[in-house]
User: Which sequence fits this backbone?
């Protein structure tokens, strides 16, 4: 049987997990080497590799608990940290962590942050201090995840699209992106912006005030906000987000970003 067939069989019947162990382990190794991805862009949008996601989940049943040491620190877990960082051209600043089964392209910098199993991080991306890249999240090239950013993991159901951050996006400090939300290329999220699958995102640059959910358009400049909602006890302010501007396509990315932050007063 193929690796994928073994994984599918074990997913449906866990008594077959021992027979699928080598297929699961090789799939995780392929994710670690960047040979396959949990999700990748296709002509009709992002395509999820459900079998690879199932392998990640099954891996927790295959791997054994073991004690690991890093200097004076002692850990007890099933998944080791990534190795071969120097050869791969990936900088990880202590005590930053990239877990085995995640892949980082050359030029990625991980400050004391965290990249979890199944994640993919593109070249030139900065994972700043205490930023986290959750399980299976897909983060593009030249992305900046500012301090304390939380990129959520999406493991179940296996067919669910993970969080996707497209190339050139700038995610401001303490922003949160979860539940498979999709941030478009070169978009800017201001500090403390939360984007979930159901967060209303209103484009207030347009008189028609179009609304998005679960997806921030490319080059949009987004800040946190609130909206009125009626409850039996009265009106309450519920969290939302506002598109207050757009990055300029005709300018260099860095110049455009600086202009966006200056002109629109976005906190980062």
Assistant:
């Amino acid at each position: 049987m193929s690796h994928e067939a073994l994984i599918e069989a074990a997913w449906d019947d866990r008594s077959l997990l021992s027979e699928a162990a080598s297929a699961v382990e090789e799939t995780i190794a392929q994710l670690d080497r960047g040979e396959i991805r949990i999700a990748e862009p296709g002509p009709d949008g992002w395509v999820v590799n459900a079998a690879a996601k199932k392998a990640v989940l099954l891996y927790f049943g295959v791997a054994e608990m073991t004690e690991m040491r890093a200097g004076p620190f002692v850990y007890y877990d099933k998944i080791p940290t990534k190795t071969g960082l120097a050869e791969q051209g990936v900088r990880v600043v202590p005590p930053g962590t990239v877990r085995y089964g995640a892949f980082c392209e050359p030029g990625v910098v991980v400050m004391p942050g965290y990249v979890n199993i199944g994640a993919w991080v593109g070249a030139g991306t900065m994972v700043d201090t205490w930023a986290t890249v959750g399980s299976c999240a897909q983060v593009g090239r030249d992305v900046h995840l500012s301090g304390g950013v939380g990129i959520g993991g999406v493991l179940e159901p296996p067919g669910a699209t993970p969080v996707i951050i497209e190339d050139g996006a700038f995610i401001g400090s303490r922003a949160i992106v979860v539940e498979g939300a999709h941030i478009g290329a070169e978009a800017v999220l201001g500090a403390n912006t939360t984007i979930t699958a159901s967060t209303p995102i209103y484009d207030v640059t347009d008189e028609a005030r179009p609304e998005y959910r679960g997806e921030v358009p490319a080059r949009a400049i987004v800040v946190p906000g609130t909206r009125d909602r009626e409850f039996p006890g009265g009106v309450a302010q519920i969290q939302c987000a506002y598109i207050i501007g757009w990055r300029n396509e005709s300018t260099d990315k860095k110049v455009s970003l600086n202009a966006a932050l200056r002109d629109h007063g976005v906190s980062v």
Remarks:
- Residues 17-33 form the longest helix (17 residues).
